[in-house]
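Q: Give me the 3D complex with LH2PNOKW.
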Amino acid sequence: MNKLAVGAILSSLRTMARPGAPITARNLCAAANSAPNASEKYKFKTLKLTTPSPFVVHVEFNRPERMNAFNRQLWTEIKDCFDQLHGDPDCRVVVLSGGSSKHFTAGIDLFDMMKLGQELGAIEEVGRRGRLLEGTIKLYQDCISSLEHCYKPVIVAVHSACIGAGLNLITAADVRYCTRDAWFSLKEVDIGLAADVGALQRFPRVVGNQSWVRELAFTARKFASDEAFSHGLVSRLFENKEELLQGAIKLAAEIASKSPIAVQGTKKNIVYSGDHTVQEGLDHIRAINMLNLQSEDFLNAIMASQSKETPVFSKL
Ligand SMILES: CCC/C=C/C=C/C(=O)SCCNC(=O)CCNC(=O)[C@H](O)C(C)(C)COP(=O)(O)OP(=O)(O)OC[C@H]1O[C@@H](n2cnc3c(N)ncnc32)[C@H](O)[C@@H]1OP(=O)(O)O
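A: Here is the predicted complex, encoded as structure tokens.
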């Protein structure tokens, strides 16, 4: 864009800006320092939250004694957590990892499943048993979908095993990184179940390879990180867990330095476009940008790119 055109855009944006509002960028670090660390704000039992970098929230599974298996409390807390992060102005990007557990996750908690079996056994009538299962499956589906519904990009960092529910979960994330020792299994058929919390819908779309996904879904075959990488399930491999977390947090920090209006508008539109036509996707982003192009972020970003400064953005 030439300087004249940029000047014209800037002067028209200045006239749109709120009267008296500063056109200068606000200070990212000052804004971040005034924000509480996620560890003070969020108190979950099966999840641990911290703020390793301004506006980056690190969510760690916290059931190491059960290999981060998904019991009812973990399902519920994941949904509560992502619903809350969605509306949290101190969070712009989320990194989700397996914490101190030996594995990222062992999938659904098999002891919890046995408890559910006992609850079902206590109900005499099939229609009522069906209702209990419907409610449970819906809760678990909503848990996985909460990553997608959260406007903040979610980067998952997988180490060692990522089984069943875990594989469903990561396909709802925005970016998937893993260690070289990571392995995956769409395990549901091995416990007599058709996967029902999103993998059959999202996994083929993520990798664009029906044949490979169907083979994995029908057999529950374990596959390693290099196979996951070569099919595009994960986009980067790391030598170990430490480097994995460093890489994920570095990416998160970079995204967090961008305009939250632009990043969140981008995620909304990518998610929407995933199951709409090209034209519907274009209509959707046009409606978003009718508003977003009037925001101070647009002005700040253009001014910063012209002056070769790093733009900073206020909380959203
Ligand atoms: C409506 C439903 C919607 C959702 C459906 C989801 C379905 C699924 O997720 S299917 C997948 C279910 N998961 C599995 O089948 C995995 C079973 N576990 C394993 O294969 C191994 O344990 C694993 C490879 C994860 C780890 O092996 P490792 O040798 O490293 O450790 P272990 O000694 O086997 O396990 C250590 C302790 O963790 C407990 N544990 C492991 N997995 C689970 C689990 N899924 N649920 C509950 N607990 C689990 C294991 O019992 C050991 O406990 P302890 O003996 O007390 O030390």
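A quick observation: The two ends are 28 Å apart (CA to CA).
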